[in-house]
Amino acid sequence: MTMDHSDKPRVGLFVTCLVDAMRPNIGFASLKLLEQAGCIVEVPQAQTCCGQPAYNSGDDATTKAIAQQLIEAFESYDYVVVPSGSCASMIRTHYGALFVDDPVWAARQQALSAKTWEILSFLSDVMAMQIEQVRYQGTATYHDSCSGLRDLGVHDQPRQLLENVEGLSMKPLKDDDVCCGFGGTFCVKYPDISNAIVSEKTDAIANTGADTLLAGDLGCLMNMAGKLSREGRDIKAFHTVEVLAGMADGAGIIGSDK
Amino acid sequence: MIQTSEKFREHVAHALTDADLKIALTRTTGLLQSRRRQVIDEYPEYAQARIRAQAIKDHTLKHLGHYLEMFEANATANGAKVHWAATPGEARRIVSDICVKAGAKTATRVKSMLGEEIGIAEALADAGVERIETDLAEHIIQLAGEAPSHIVMPAMHKTREQVASLFDEKHGVAPDSHDVTDLVASARRELRKKFLSADVGISGANFLIADTGAIVTVTNEGNSELTCTPPKTHIVTVGIEKIVPGMDHATVLLRLLARAAIGAEITQYTTFYNGPKREDDADGPTDYHIVLVDNHRSEMLGTDLQPMLRCIRCGACMNHCPVYAAVGGHAYGAVYPGPMGSVLTPAMSSLEAAKDLPNACTLNGRCKEVCPVNIPLPDMLRTFRARQWEAGLTPPLAQWALKGWGFVARRPRIYRLASGLSVYGLRLWAFGKGRIRKMPLASSWLKYRDLPRPEKGSFMQQYNASEHAKRSRK
Ligand code: SF4
């Protein structure tokens, strides 16, 4: 892609609260991929969280305040890109419900929502990026996280991008479109049900024979990796961008005790 | 209606230790999912039919009064006696009065969820009438003294092995083997004699057709015909939202219903009932009643819960729900289980009585994806969460945690400090290990899973120290 410097899209990277605290590597991998794809990337300092915990708990007033804060932080960019399907969907598909009675904010929100993208679909659908000269030695299986899949149509993009990673072979996962049982606050409010669901998932993952689990949402990944680790299964978990950026080293999202 | 949704957590704890339940649920939901996928792949007009179905239901709901009046006039002209019941209690009284007047001793019944909703069993007991369930699965759970756990497959919670031993015990004659065919034959022997001698037949209706006054029932066993035709009296109990303007509309919905419910192109039996026996008819009831039940449905009209009234009771949402698959229908402690039940139950009871149901959902959206009339079930569950929050019903600890989080999330500087501190704290707590196995305040998470030890420094701390940050600040 040849672009004159001034033509390059300006992207505001929203790293999400979980990535910020638990897995900065995903943020850096996102930064690297976006730049490789030809974007000018900035990381606004005023970013915090998208408001999902409050929204999913029914606290609309707090969600609205958090959303306003996020809109102010990001509205000057051409695009807002998020390495998480559920946070991207929060901004893209759920913010609208918050401002129905507020025309001024509704307009600002709509403008922001329309330019907000989940990272894999942004790289693929908007930037038409091709992955080159990246290696990952292993056999991986892919789980479709719910919000990215159903709200944003993220399905083929990660699979196509991963096709060009040298050394990587992919194994299909049975019921790859079924929830892993994370569900944000669900997993702590109903730990026993969540455990029953994630146990099915880790069994299915183990049955593929893959040594690596990939997905596009750190919440789901922490849930599945946490369960795999508790079960003592030797399967590493990475966010897809870590592999695509050539930054998937070591033990993965949960380190080993050894 | 016995409302026990308060005990959701107890039921869940019980269900999760029941190995037979897990086997039964996995077998049946797995089969229904793959069958549904197959018939929908073979139905190129599916997407269009779904849009049309949604439009039909939305239109009818918008003009519900108009179509109900049209239905009443046409059904009455056909010879039906139409009754209106605002509450389950009223519906029960109407049914029991009809039975008493008819001098009924036995009643056959083809299962309908509305019948469960209004408490048909109680109504018949009040009228001193013996109730005979004619649906095979309902027969099974009547023998077991249980309640349905699914709206289409009421005995989904039982394995065929459990059914075989139940039949051995209750039918007196053991089936030759425990083949499904033998089990069915054994039930048929039990039920046949009862069909022909019943005084009253009670059914629900899948659709009410306004412009002809007809009612439609679908079954796979033909038990609707056997229930509704031989007895002198036929009583239909049905929810007011089941109405459609005309026959064409009903057929659009019928094609979707069968596919979504059991993965078949059409159900084995689809019957239109147009009124009592006419002079030259060979058979049919002479006394034909239709009881139209509201039970909070009209309160949902015009609110953000109205889309729920599009529901055609196909059960696809439960067959695809990971929570339902883990805990089964009885855990919901209500007539309607699964995703649709988690919306209907609080709408028909109260936010308090059903407080867990809207929360016990991961909002994964698969239910909405498979719903043939495109009901946004996750959005409606969230609506209830918002109502609970407003009403102060959210558990205090969660309220405080969220308020604290909300405060910090609106103040980036404080947020940076807090996230930096928590990363530091978590790393200390990990004691050099790659994972955390025990920690106060994270017991729910750590009960079943490990927590990663975060990297050194939050993203922002690392980023702000990087060359990239210096370049972009300039
Ligand atoms: S909500 Fe939709 S999927 Fe569930 S039973 Fe009703 S029509 Fe079927």
Can you give a write-up of this model?
- The complex is a heterodimer of chains A (258) and B (474).
- Chain A has 258 residues and is of the alpha/beta class.
- Chain A folds into two domains: 10-124, no CATH class; 133-245, 3-Layer(aba) Sandwich (Rossmann fold).
- Helix content of chain A is 48%, strand content 14%.
- A four-stranded parallel sheet of chain A has the order 2-1-3-4, with helices on both faces.
- In chain A, strand 7 (212-215), helix 12 (218-230) and strand 8 (236-239) form a beta-alpha-beta unit.
- In chain A, helix 4 (60-74) packs across helix 6 (103-114), helix 5 (85-94) runs parallel beside helix 8 (146-152) and helix 7 crosses helix 9 (156-163).
- Chain A starts with 9 loop residues before the first strand and ends in a 14-residue tail after the last helix.
- With 474 residues, chain B is an alpha/beta fold.
- Chain B has three domains: 1-42 and 315-394, no CATH class; 58-300, Rossmann fold (3-Layer(aba) Sandwich), CATH 3.40.50.10420; 397-472, no CATH class.
- Chain B is 51% helix and 11% strand.
- Chain B has helices at 8-15, 19-41, 46-62, 64-77, 88-101, 113-118, 120-126, 136-144, 160-170, 180-197, 223-228, 247-262, 297-300, 316-319, 322-327, 338-348, 366-370, 377-390, 396-409, 412-429, 443-446, 459-464, 467-473, and strands at 81-85, 106-109, 130-133, 200-203, 207-209, 214-219, 233-239, 243-244, 269-273, 287-293, 435-436, 451-452.
- A six-stranded parallel sheet of chain B has the order 1-10-7-4-2-3, sandwiched between helices.
- In chain B, helix 2 packs across helix 12 (247-262), helix 9 crosses helix 10 (180-197) and helix 16 (338-348) runs parallel beside helix 18.
- Chains A and B meet through helix 1, helix 2, helix 3, helix 4 and helix 8 of A and helix 15, helix 17, helix 18, helix 19 and helix 20 of B.
- Residues 260, 311-317, 340, 371-373, 375 of chain B line the site of iron/sulfur cluster (SF4).
